[in-house]
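agent> step 3/5: call structure_predict on target 'Amino acid permease' (Tumebacillus lacus).
agent> reason: downstream docking stage needs a structural representation; sequence fetched in step 2, passing through unchanged.
tool.input:
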Amino acid sequence: MNLFRTKSIEELIRTSNQGETLKRALGAFDLTLLGIGAIIGTGIFVLTGQGALTAGPALILSFILAGLACGFAALCYAEFASTVPVSGSVYTYTYATMGEFPAWVIGWDLILEYALAVSAVSVGWSGYFQSLISGFGLRVPAALSAAPGAVKGVTTFFNLPAALIVLLITFLLSRGVRESTRINNIMVVIKVAVVLLFIVVGVGYVQPENWQPFMPFGVNGIFQAAALVFFAFIGFDAVASAAEETRDPARDLPRGILWSLAICTLLYVIVSAIMTGIVPYPQFEGVDHPVSLALQVAGQNWVAGFIDLGAILGITTVLLVMTYGQTRIFFAMSRDGLLPKMFSTVHPKYRTPYGSTWMVGTVSALVGGLVPLGQLAELVNIGTLAAFTLISIAVLVLRRTRPELPRAFRVPGSPVVPLLAVIFCVFLMLQLAWLTWAAFVIWLLIGLVIYFVYSRHHSNLNRPSR
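tool.output (status=ok):
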């Protein structure tokens, strides 16, 4: 069998409009808020503290570097999303350009990215939630407050809040994308307002001497922090997964992807500058709420409470979009025959992949409740960077193989911009620890076994000959 057999663009679009289809209900505004909902969350509310310990006040340069890598990749995403408006994101685009086997590899990679992101973020949500209710004198029983072994000296069995929030998000997504995006839009508006509140209040307490020395760990510290805070940008690619549920994908998908990334990058740079200007960077050691800590140091405890609430809402929207993106990847791979049919079965009433959504949500809830995930940002990052690298290469391949294909959006400065995306992403991957690479390779090996045992034999591209 040819491992690099491709599915034509026309066939992909035709298949997406036949049989059980998803409901088209999203516009550019919805997609922009969907992207912001996925991007602003754990990265800005948690990882900024860890990034400051690695880069010092030069964290703003780390965010700019990571933002540039995402920006170049986002332009490639925008061209593909407007040209091939089909569910599956980079998996589908790779299938159309590089072939089935590379598509399977990147699809399996995306499953890792979204699954670990949902589970890790749910644990972060649980921590903020328990911190918030403690202010009202409420406590989650210790045994149900964290995964086994997650807290030293405390006997814990299950992280109940982490599991429950994932199940709630799963319920919303199973009922319909329109209903889910309404809730997402409300929470995104609130959390952006909270971030702006931090900026307005915090800028008056900045002490420029806290920015000295500006680069305490040199250029290497900036690069290492960029590889870490890259996690803060993960999510805009999930917008491309909504292609089949967008009213005018050729126009709205590029806008949603680029607008959401631009807004979030600007907010990240401003927040990190103010945060390190209020608090000397060494004080972020062991702190999991760096943004609210800055306001506490400034004596604005009442605003810090709003920041905690904004963090909870921010992380909730990340969970919603990441779970959404994961189910759509499963949907696309199942429809192509690479995964069992149940993952692409659409509910007759809600027009969502109902069974797949609940299966994915249940597994993610159990992982978040039972596994002390710790620092998973690097493992999630390497999967995302690999996906961004492939999508950038795929744009160049499709430009050469199908130059006549109508493109509603074209990457400016091609081939320079796609090549810059590849260079930036590979460079950031090389900054990650070898243990991260080892875990990534093990996951890919598991995927290879599944592909050669099941997927390539059940692929729809085998069926025409039967």
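agent> step 4/5: record observation. The chain has one domain: 9-13+27-457.
agent> proceeding.
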